[in-house]
Specification:
single chain; alpha+beta; 194 residues; Ubiquitin-like (UB roll); 2 domains; 13% strand; globular; DNA polymerase, domain 1; 5 strands
Length: 194
């Protein structure tokens, strides 16, 4: 043995049925043979090496395992991997790139929205889902959207500020023609009757 730790795993059982699934993960189609009982969180972490999806409770209480499933936030610790067959899954690794962070990631950095970091991936994914659906949320709407995610370090205030910062950043980056039809009609002079 050359390392301090070597994981010993039993030989896989040969009589366990598997099912072939194709899941688009972070934009990449992945075809895998999985046991029908395998949780999506475990497939992402152990099967695909996407360890940003954390598992904290396995009961949907903490939200650390939140991913986007066809754009909607779900808790991957209670969804079977076979249920994701033919669907899109986005994890925190798929938010930004090495050279360009997603505005949510920037917001968490800028507004100190992370402390220990354990809840951060789930918080970011729930935040991304909110901003995709509502680009101008109120503080109450942010708090409601994140209500299924726990932060044991009590960093909620900065997390909410981070999401609001990201929303503002995205609105500021929007080209004027996408800002809405109302903005275009506000500049039109109104004729007054004599």
């Amino acid at each position: 043995m050359t390392s301090l730790f070597e994981e010993i795993t039993p030989a896989p059982a040969t009589d366990v049925p598997v099912r072939r699934v194709t899941i688009t993960v972070n934009g990449q189609p992945r075809t895998l043979d999985v046991e029908p009982r395998l949780l999506l969180a475990h497939l992402l972490r152990q099967g695909l090496g996407l360890t940003g999806t954390h598992t904290g409770c396995d009961t949907t209480n903490c939200g650390a395992c939140t991913v986007l499933y066809d754009g909607a936030p779900i808790k991957s610790c209670t969804m079977l991997a076979v249920q994701a067959d033919g669907h899109e899954v986005q994890t925190v690794e798929g938010l930004g790139t090495a050279s360009e962070l997603d505005p949510v990631q920037e917001g968490f950095t800028h507004e100190h929205g992370l402390q220990c970091g354990f809840c951060t991936p789930g918080m970011m994914m729930a935040s991304r889902a909110l901003l995709n659906a509502n680009p101008d949320p109120t503080e109450e709407e942010v708090r409601f959207a994140l209500s299924g995610n726990l932060c044991r370090c009590t960093g909620y205030q900065n997390i909410v500020k981070a999401v609001l910062w990201a929303a503002q950043r995205e609105r500021d980056a929007q080209p004027p023609e996408e800002a809405g039809a109302e903005a275009a009609t506000d500049d039109v002079p109104v004729e007054q009757e004599a």
